[in-house]
Every structure is written in C-alpha cells, then in structure tokens.
Amino acid sequence: MSYLLEEEKVFKDPVHKYIYVQDQTIWDLINTREFQRLRRIRQLGTCFLTFHGAEHSRFSHSLGVYEVTRKIISQFERNQYEDWPKEERLLCLCAALLHDVGHGPFSHSIEKTFGTHHEEWSCRIVLGDTEVNEVLRRVSPTFPQEVAGVIAKTYRREIVVSLVSSQLDADRMDYLLRDAYFTGVNYGTFDLERILRVMRPYQGHIVVKDSGMHAVEDYLMSRYQMYWQVYFHPVTRSAEVVLNKIFQRARHLYDDGFAFRSLLAPLPALFQRKLTCSEYYLLDEAFMQTTLMQWTLEDDPILSDLCSRFLQRRLFKYVTLEMLDASMLEQLREQLAALGIDPVYYLEVDFPSDQSYDIYRPGEHDEKLPILLLDSNEQLTEISRKSEIVRSISGIQMGKYHLYYPRDLLVKHLPELDPGLRRLFAL
Amino acid sequence: MSYLLEEEKVFKDPVHKYIYVQDQTIWDLINTREFQRLRRIRQLGTCFLTFHGAEHSRFSHSLGVYEVTRKIISQFERNQYEDWPKEERLLCLCAALLHDVGHGPFSHSIEKTFGTHHEEWSCRIVLGDTEVNEVLRRVSPTFPQEVAGVIAKTYRREIVVSLVSSQLDADRMDYLLRDAYFTGVNYGTFDLERILRVMRPYQGHIVVKDSGMHAVEDYLMSRYQMYWQVYFHPVTRSAEVVLNKIFQRARHLYDDGFAFRSLLAPLPALFQRKLTCSEYYLLDEAFMQTTLMQWTLEDDPILSDLCSRFLQRRLFKYVTLEMLDASMLEQLREQLAALGIDPVYYLEVDFPSDQSYDIYRPGEHDEKLPILLLDSNEQLTEISRKSEIVRSISGIQMGKYHLYYPRDLLVKHLPELDPGLRRLFAL
Amino acid sequence: MSYLLEEEKVFKDPVHKYIYVQDQTIWDLINTREFQRLRRIRQLGTCFLTFHGAEHSRFSHSLGVYEVTRKIISQFERNQYEDWPKEERLLCLCAALLHDVGHGPFSHSIEKTFGTHHEEWSCRIVLGDTEVNEVLRRVSPTFPQEVAGVIAKTYRREIVVSLVSSQLDADRMDYLLRDAYFTGVNYGTFDLERILRVMRPYQGHIVVKDSGMHAVEDYLMSRYQMYWQVYFHPVTRSAEVVLNKIFQRARHLYDDGFAFRSLLAPLPALFQRKLTCSEYYLLDEAFMQTTLMQWTLEDDPILSDLCSRFLQRRLFKYVTLEMLDASMLEQLREQLAALGIDPVYYLEVDFPSDQSYDIYRPGEHDEKLPILLLDSNEQLTEISRKSEIVRSISGIQMGKYHLYYPRDLLVKHLPELDPGLRRLFAL
Amino acid sequence: MSYLLEEEKVFKDPVHKYIYVQDQTIWDLINTREFQRLRRIRQLGTCFLTFHGAEHSRFSHSLGVYEVTRKIISQFERNQYEDWPKEERLLCLCAALLHDVGHGPFSHSIEKTFGTHHEEWSCRIVLGDTEVNEVLRRVSPTFPQEVAGVIAKTYRREIVVSLVSSQLDADRMDYLLRDAYFTGVNYGTFDLERILRVMRPYQGHIVVKDSGMHAVEDYLMSRYQMYWQVYFHPVTRSAEVVLNKIFQRARHLYDDGFAFRSLLAPLPALFQRKLTCSEYYLLDEAFMQTTLMQWTLEDDPILSDLCSRFLQRRLFKYVTLEMLDASMLEQLREQLAALGIDPVYYLEVDFPSDQSYDIYRPGEHDEKLPILLLDSNEQLTEISRKSEIVRSISGIQMGKYHLYYPRDLLVKHLPELDPGLRRLFAL
C-alpha cells in the first residue's frame, strides 16, 4: 500500500534548489537509520584532499538521484507518453533513493582489500532485517525484492533499470552536477533540464530525440572532463594508494596475529569477512577515520606512519612514466628495500585506466546500456555512430603510468641514493 | 624570516574560485597536522541535519578567511594607501588562517558542557609545542606571540585585529558566502568585490567610504537573514539541544562513576577538563561521532536513546510559545516525570537570543568594532546613525520561545496524557 | 474557445532557464506584431548608460512575468487550493503577458513630455484594431475587455488583479531578478521558488504563510537595493534629465514652427498628441534613437547639442545638495544665462523621491495591494506590523537633491565664472 | 605619452564582475563617439530572434575583450615572465578594445551585399579623422598605425597579434562566456581563470603549459557547442536569410532606379559603396531597424513583405536535406515562380559550413594561429597531436543542407501545389 503525503515536503538542495517528496514511503525511507547513515559517508572518498570543497555526503547524492528520477518520471507523466509504464513510478523512486545505501566508507579501498561490494550490500540492506526493509514491505510483501532487482539490474523491465543505471542515468546526472558544484570546478555542468526534455520512453527503452544529440555530447564531455580533472587527479589517487596500503598492512598484521592496541568492533568482523547488517551499520567514515587516528598510535611503524600520512595529508609524490619497465621496477624495489623502506607499502604504480570507471565505451561495458537516438522516422541509432565527438572519447587511451613514492623518506637518504634513482625522482 | 614561494600555489575553491598562496609560511602552516585536522570538523556543527549540503569543514572556511584577508591587503597595497602598515601583511594573513585552528567538534555544545573555549585553544595551539608554532617561530621568535595577540584581540594595532575580527571582517565575509553556497540558500550572497573596493585603512581603523553604505546594508541584511533562516533554524537548534543533553548526561554519568563500555582517550581528560594540546588534536568530529555511535550501545537508556536520536535524526519536536510561564513549565516537568520521562534530558526551552551570535548591535558587543563610514569631508560616522535599515536590525527583538520535547515518546503515552498537555503539543 | 498546444513550446531564458508555453492563445499572442515590437524597447530605458549589460528588452521581461504567473498558478493547481478560481487561469496568463505591451521607448521621458501613459496604451492595444485583439477575441468576445480590466486593475476579482499588480506580484518578481541578472549586480536576487511556495490564495486575496516572512523581507530588501543602487543611480538619472530636455526642446521648437530637416512620421502625431494605434506601433526605441541621431544634424544648437550628449554619453555632471535654496538656484540660473547657457535646458534639480517608484509604503499607494501574512490561526496581518525591517523601509526618507549641470561647458568659461559657482561645482 | 588615471575606474559587468580601467588612454577611447556607437550594435546580430536574451551589444563585448587582455597581461607581469615584452602593454589593450570598432549593424548580411568589411573599417576608424584617432595620437604619432597593424594582423610581433587574434585569444574567450551568459545556455562556460593561469609567453608566442590541455579541450568544446547550438541555430540562420534577401532586393531596386519613399542618409552612399567615416558613424542598428520599418511602407511588395517578416519574426521555415539535388532545386524554383512567388527572394539553401566561422582547424585557417602546448622539456606541440578530442572537432563535417521557404505563402496555395512539393514541405 502506498499513499501520498498530506503536504509535500522539501529539502533545500544547492544543486537542484529543492528536492520534493510527495510519497509517504520515500519520506519514511529517508528517515531510516540506514539511510541517515549515508550522512556519515563522503560521496567522493579521498577527493576532499585535493578539492577541499568535496566534503559532501552520499546522503545528498542519494536525494539528488531520487530528485532527478522524479523529474524524469513527472515529465513522462505530464506528456502522457504511452510507452511509460505508470505503475512503476514508486519502484523507480525507491530504487533511485536506495541504490547507494550499501556504500561504506572509502568504498574503493575497502572493497579492494576486503572483498565487500557496495551494490551487494545495498541489496542486503533492502532485503535484510532493517528499517529500510520494514518500510518497503509496507508497500507490498514482494516490494523489497523488486527494489533489490532494480539495484542488481535483474529486474525484468529494462526501462526501470535504465533510469537508475545506464550510460545516461539519474545517478550520473546527479553526481556530475553535484561533484562539480562542491569541488567548484565547472567542467561538470551541463543543461539538465534540456537533457530531461529530450528523453523519451520508447518500446521498453529510454531513448533521446536526435535533436538532443549535442546536449548529450555536452553531458558526455562533462563526464570525460570530470574523470580526468577530478576523479583521476594524481593527488586523489595518491591518497587512495596510501589508504590501500593502510588496509593491506592492517589485514596483514591481523592475519599475522599482531596485538592491536585498539581494534574497535566491527573491525574483527570486517577482517574476517563476516560482517552482519547491523555491524555494517557501524562502519561509517567517522568510524574509519577514528580508527586511522587510533592506528597512528600502534606499535607497527609502517601502519602508524601510513595513517599519519593520510590524516596529515603527507601523501606520496609521483613521477609520470610513459611506459613501464618491469626490470627497472624490480631494481627500484630492491634499492628501497636496501634503504630499509618496504617497497610493498611504499611504492605503487597507478594507471588510471585499470580502474573500473565507466567512461562511455559502447560494447565494452556490457552492463551499461548505450545511449540511443530516436529520429523523426522512429529509427534508433547508437549515439557514437552519429557523433564524432562521442567516438573520440569512446575508445580513449587512458592516462599515463604514475609511480607513487614517499619523497620525504628518500630525501632523508639523499647521500645513499643511487644516481639513477635520484634522476628518476629529480632529487 | 619570511619569503615568497618560487611559484604561486592555488587551491580550487567553490566560493572564491581560487585561493592563492604566495608565502612559504602560509604554505607550511596549511600543511601542519593541526591545520589539516580542521578538515575533520564541520563548519556549521549540527546544521547539516537541516540543510544537507552544509557538510563543509572549518578547513575550507579558514582558507577562505585567509583569501579574503589577502584580497583586502592586496587592494590596500595596489592603491598605496598611506594609512596601511605594510609590515603587518604576514601577521594578518597568519592570524586570518589560524583564528579558528582551536575549534573542536560541535563547539557550542562541547564548550557549554566542558568549559573549553575555541579562541583560547587557538592561542594554545599557536603558542604550544605544535607544528604550527614551529612554522611561526621560523618567521621570528616573537611571531607566535603576535599571532596569538591578534587572535585574542590584544594586539596593539587595532587595524590588524579588525581585519580578522570586527563587524565587517574577513571571517564573516567568508562564512556568510560559504554557508550560503553550501546550504544552497541565497540569502547570504552579497557583493564581496564591491565591499572590498569601498574599504579603506584610515587613521588606524578600517573604514568604509560612505558611497558604499548600501553595499554594507546589503551585507548586514545577509547576516540577518542567515541567522534567522539558517543558523537559528529550529531543526538545527533541536539537534543542538539533543547534543547538549548527551554531553550533560555523559558528564553526569562519568561524575557518578558509571562504567562506560567504551570511553576512548581523550574523553576522560575532556571530562576532567585537563586536555593537553596533543590530546586536543585527537578530538575531532569523526572521533565524536564514533563516540556517539559507541554510546548507543551503553547500558544507560537515556544516553543510549539520545545518541540514537542524534545519529538517526529522530530529534525533538517543538512548539512555539509567545511567552514563558514558569509555573506551566514546572507542571509540565512533573507530568513528564510521572510518565517516566526525565524532564532534565527530555525538555528544553530555547530562546535564540540568548545565544552569543553577533547580530550587529553597536555599543553592546564591546569586543566587536563598529562599522564607520568615511565621507568626503573626512568625517567618520557610525553606520547605524545614517541607515534606518541598519538601525532596524541593530536593536532587533530576538525570536520566540521554542519548547523542545520528544513527540514520539508522548505519542506512546497518549491515553495517559493530561488534556492540557495534549492541547499544547497538538496530540 | 481556448485549447492546449499539441506539444509544449519553450523559450530559453537566462533568468528562469526555460519559459514554458502550453496554450495556443499564449503562443499566438507572442507572435503578434504588437508583442514582437517589445523586442525593440529596452526594459530599463537609459540605465544601459550606467550598467552596460542592461540592454534587455521588454519582450524578455514580459515573457518572464508570464512565466512567474504560470508557476504561481501551477503551484495553486497542484496543491488544489480551494480558494483559487481555476477558471481564471488563461485570463491571468494573458494579462501577465500583455501588461506592458503599451510601453513605448524611454517611457518615463516621453510620458512626461507628451502625456502618453503606457498602461492606457496597453489597454488600447488590447481593445483596438490589432493582432493582439484578434487573438484574444478568439477566446471569447468579451475576453479582450476582461484582459484590459485586469491591466487597468478594475477587474472584479481582486485575486486576479493582484497576481499581476500588487506589492508582491509576478511583474516585480521578474523585473528584480531580470534587472539584477543583466546589470550584473546581485542585490536583486531572492529565492523565487521559496516565495512561490509560501503564497496562498485565501478568501479572494493572495496571502503569504507567516513562516515565509523572512523570505518576503529578503524580497523587499532586494527591491530597496535595486532602487537605490540601480534605478536611482545618478548617471542613469542624468541621462534621463538630458532626454527630458531633448523632448522638451523639440516640442518647444515644433510648437514654435521650427523647420526640422527631419521629422519622420509619426513624430508630428506624437507632438500633436493624437497618435493612433498603428502610428504607436512605429514608435519603438530604434526609431527614437534614429530620431536623436538625425536631430544632431538640426540647426538648433540646443537640440543638436543635447542629442549628441545623449548618444555619445557626454551627460550632465551633478553635485549633491543637502537642501534646496530657491534663491541660490535663481542666482545660478541668472549666471548661466549670462554665460549664454540656457538654464531651462542646462540645469535641473533631481530628487529621486518625487518619482513614482513604488518602494513599499502601506497606506500611501492605494492602488498597490499590501502583503498579508496568514498565521496558523487563519489570522491575516499586514507584514509591516510584524517586521521591523519592512517598517524601516516603508517610511524611508528619499535620497538627496542632485543638481545636474554641463561641467564641460562651465570649464570653457572658467575665467568668467563667479567664485561661488566655482566653489559649488568644485571647478 | 601615456599615463595612469589618478583613481582606477570600474564598470560593473555581468561576465567578469568588474572591468578595471587604469590608463587615461583607455578611459578616453571608451568615451569617444565611435566607441559609444557600439552600444547601438548588437553583438549577435539576428540571434536575439532565437534566444531572446541575446540583446547585448558590441560595446560590452569590446570592454570584455579589453578586460581579458588586461588580465592576461597582468598575470604575465605578476609572474615576471621574461619572454613578455612589457613595452607592448598599452598597444595590446588598445587593440583589444578597438578590434571591433568597425562593426556595423547586422555585419554578416551587410558585408555580404555591400562588400564592406568590419576589420577594414576598424582600421579606417583608427587611422581616419575620428575621436579615436585623436586619442591614440596623444600616445605617439605612430601609435594609431601600430594599433591598426595589430588589428590587421600585420604588426611585426606575433605575440601581440595573437593575444587579440588567434585560436585562443581574448576575443573568443570573452564572446563565448558573454554569449553563453546572455542567451542563457551553459555550453559556453569554461574556466577562464584556469586558462589564464596556464598561458605563457614563450619565444614570441603565447603557448599553454601541457598540464592545461584538458582545460583547453574544455574551452574548444565550448566553442563547438556554441557554434552548433547557438550561432548556427536554424531560426537565427532563417532571420539571416531574410535579411540578406532584404538587402539584395533593396540594392536591386536602387540600381533599377526605384523611387523609395524613404531613403535616409547614408543609405545612398552605402548603396554606391562610397561611405565616409562620418557617414559610417550614422549607420547603427537603430538606424537599420528604422529603415526596415520604413521599408514596410514601400510600394515594392517583395521589399515590404520581407521587412515585415523580419520585424514581426514571421521568418522562413526550413526542411533538412541530406544532400543537394541541383535539378530538384531548379524544378522547385520554377514551381514557385509559377505560383507568383519569386524564388530569388523566397528560396534559399543554407549550408552552415560555408560560413567563415572558425571552428578549430589547424592548417586550414592560415590567419589563425594554432594552440601550442609547452611540456616540461620545453618542447612545443600543436594541441591536436596530443588530444583526440581536439582532433575530433578539427576536421568536423559541417551541418546539413537547410532549405528555407515561406511556409505561410505555400499554405495559401495548397490546392495548386505539386504533390512532390507538398511531400517535401510536409504540407
């Protein structure tokens, strides 16, 4: 059973001006403890160390995705498009709001080291013994299952899935605008209202009127710019590297039986990869930062040093390499080891393209639906067939190799340093 | 000794577009652990529970205050105003950057319960055994003392103090613009460049050309609007009330010898009011939120309930009262107690005006310098003598009484409730 | 008969992002020659000589007023407020769109000299033999009369009139935002969406929920700032003075039988005050500027000089006077005359307050409906009774006396100038 | 001789916030009649008929180009780049301010029909008997010649020319931002401050640090979007077509000895292609619009009809053609002629790429200097060699064929129309 609120509620939002809530179910979901928890998880992980404004949370992003979805649907309804399945409205809105509810702190690093996966957790929260599940069940007993289906992209109706997850979905539209707003860069701005106006439900897909091609190009270029200028920024990547090393070291110590001074619940469960839903709830970014702070006081010099680096933003520096020479790297590791610097934790090669970021590549990302243009003859064409610009960013060559290293440590060993190494790091 | 960076550094900032760093000292200060700690303290305390965008930190605000100060000084220098003491440039910039370095998490609540004071802590950090102090001493042995003097408003030159702390200072100019940007409200916007252009150093004061009176009115109205629409928002105040009650309860339990399951360092030192500088460093907002989360698991039902309320945003509701009737309040307390609801922790009257927020009131706030207009005859006049608008907000009557109470608890006791109480709370 | 467009049309608009047209009647009205003529009339008259961005036309403002009205009504409809007379929708929209259709070029000056009145002309265009009238008659034979009634504020339903013309109407909301955008000042910005959300139809009035009082204060302060910083700017006023003098001189010459080299139609009709609707159509700002340009070539030195001044922005300078001394003014006139400078055309005292600009003054402007606050007890209160800020700008004292004079001419007569005059003009 | 103003002057500007004038020469140039005339010429010609906000003048754009140039130079000076020839400052600023001073109304159409050329006129105004020339000569006798040299791109120092005229010049940076602001589209926004920060004078060129490549890509994409979404908009092009036809018809009539009712000076001189500088001064957009208005009253039905179309925005409609079939076109012309519709004036094929708009094409536009990236090894590389995106828009295929025709006329002849023609125009 679902019903409308007596009076529309609003949230003041810097990106969409206001976010409008009309359904009791949406209002109740926002007020669950699991959704409120998103306030304590930053949207952009380590990016605030590069762009200090990027301190916004997944809470505001999730509201934003909901709002963009609401706008798309209300446009479909206002224009009475026949191909739009009206009965799916609430399902779309709930899935939009909840698609990120499973995100943990510093997701990329944690997921890498401990094998958690935020989409899986979103589904667990939707289906498990949670306040979110309780609210959803009030709509109908099968409703949580349907919401989880949309999040997991297994729901039978593609059109519902694609609103939340495709190459032109509410998720991306919100995060590009939001991340641009909070970082203060203006690469991410595109004309949202224009995009919404050219979207159409059509035979089970969301398509775009071909007169809107340039608007979509503009949106895709915003994504391109945001990836290369913000998300892949070397300083952000450096913080990510340090964080990875921290978790790697902590896990190694734990597996080794190291006696931590402080290992607050639910860290042991995380290390043993057997978190429950209610333990996961505790694992927010405040908790993780507090843990890093506590670990600066641990006896293991590597763990303690890495945590201080992260908290005080004494990150690794980098050099750019055109190509990667395995033997050179091996040599480098040996030299570091000889200086007493463990290369496992103090050296990393990063190559942005090996990240699973999803710059538009038709065919490659099978799970991401392509953008289809609808012309006046009702023909559908995949956009990169018509736009040279989209083609130019579809097969794009990914960045360069960045070699991250602790410059401050090397500086201390200046006299002992091998000349090749000094040249490499311009010391 | 102070010197310029070889190459100017910039921070991308959403409010000022870019923040420019030209001095080695400023760069070094930003990279101290004490300054980096400000990243972990929100600028607006509990306000993010009302305006979800308000998640920005004191780190970005501090950079902003520095930048506004830099712009003012560079305007003074470009125009070669004789009354500007050029030799004070670096001192102003350092004081601007560091004036909030002593802020802790949820300052208002913590200061209220534990008697700490952020300005005092700023001075302790400037003067104590800290990285900040070390950087400042490199300029000259007495430089830390001078910076502390400006922050404490005891420095001998009023003009230096007033840049950082007056009715028209860099601090306010930045926070109004910044808080408006991040909350998304546009009441706080005023024409910063215009204000900067009409500011003049004059006989030891910072004054404003009288042709800029309307611009200053606009700035003061922005302040007025931000206070009443953002800072005093009843939901924010409710979160503040809950937080106060939490600390009050925790302190009471501690004093009572309650056996906390978790009482991480430096909480005992905080409770005993004997924090050291390095303990204070640990006390960031991540730590405090983690503590609140841990306390939800404590055995004391009041502490645990209040913490859950805060973290899940199940705050107190409020009714507005035109005036306060002490006997009615007493009765109310008794009725709550009879229902098993402790009125000490579950009832609060809030009256915004008793907060020490500093709406412009000439004469009253002796520590805040008034705004002086300079006319073409070189006469100085305090602005409220010329502007009816400024007068209208100078003696302004402060808000209404808000009575905060836990509606959800009362709803559970509906049948037992006294009719007067039901009427009062519209139950 | 009225009907909806098959497909919604939009105009890209810098202020409201998009302007949405859903009715055939609105679309047809926009495409009439009389409405298109508004493209050739600047919204802010001589203001572009002070703020060079202020080159926007009455065309865009009229679309904006329409759009704000559309938004208000659509909010009323969405919330299904009972006190809103749904059947008046199209009438409101048409009146909003057309309320300025009778504006001529440089309205203030022309109206002053030739006794035309733009509101009267709006009604003549709505009722006369025009394309506008033809479109309106298609709705119903009496529809033009109703639209004219709303514009003339004689329509029987106050609520309809007040949407277009009151202290809080669509007209002002658009022009404040629009003029702020195009001049580039940000005093005029207020939160339009917020204002719209607190407006209610109530017992035949448009009222404001009292929780929106601060938002209305903010809007009224924007008006105050725009008047004093933009509309009353002394340079704009100076251009206005020169323009007045031009028309005064031309009329004097015409009445005197002066042989103009160029006197394009419909100037003679204008001078004789007997313009027809189709002559009025020709009288746009392009025409008037071309006339001024032609008049620079006339034999009358005063007319020719004044026109050159306007076109080349060699305006009169001004001195500010605290009070006005009639005998001093008389003396001044005599001295100018003695120098061969005709004081009728080369001297003017301007006192902004004697303009009929409508800063909020309850009681005084009988034709402008006051702003009423609706509280939770369904009581209505006029806003200045609750807001000290509104009171402070209600009875505000108007500017100072500005004495405009041709400084460049006086400079040429420097040796002959009386010392008092030199002192007055700081020569 | 050149000197600084005693006090810096500012213009409020919506795009750059403020425009700063520090030199007496710049101030004097702005106040010349020739520069003030630019207030009466719209920056975007017929574009306001599509985007109603696009009513801004060449006056504001010229100030903007000046301001961008000033900012670039002041950055060069602040960083004390050795490759910057400091003595060229004033020359750059004057050329930037004056480069468009020769623009006439609706430049593209007028130039096409009457063979005038705005750059040539800019030089004539700089060198002729004008107030501009007088101001420039005060700097030095050869200064006007130097300014004209920069405008004509013949000045000996490439670095000076390229600031005002290259693929990355102050002209484009201002017009993209300004046109985006006034139309209200946000495709044209890019990060000006960022671009300025990566520009360097280097061995006689202006180059870009290669770390700024993505910022330049963003700027070039803005240009691409503005061209396709704004400048080449079919409605704007249609107005351009109608205007071309008007001038073509008028010239034909004039050459034929037609007796115009109204042919104000300097139209005859324009028709005879022998305008003097002082006649050119009269030829502003107000004059041209008044002429069009007068011509609606002429006896020639074609001229009168076309002028009404333009003024009332009853433009030609268009159909899009994939390719152009000459024989089909010939047939079409014959059919129109048979209906009494002169195909010379009522049919036009437009193919955007044949316009001399300057989408970035290295090699092709010899007069437009390419953008060079400077890497850390001091190597210069033309940007399209490094950026796939830039390559994708360098060789871009230009639009489609648009066939413009008067739909309203054809509708009147519906029964007589050939079926092929009805199909083509979907009648």
TrEMBL record, chains A, B, C, D:
InterPro entries: dGTPase-like, HD/PDEase_dom, HD_assoc_2, HD_domain
Classification via Pfam families: HD (PF01966), HD_assoc_2 (PF19276)
Domain (HD) ranges: 58-176
Name of the protein in question: HD domain-containing protein
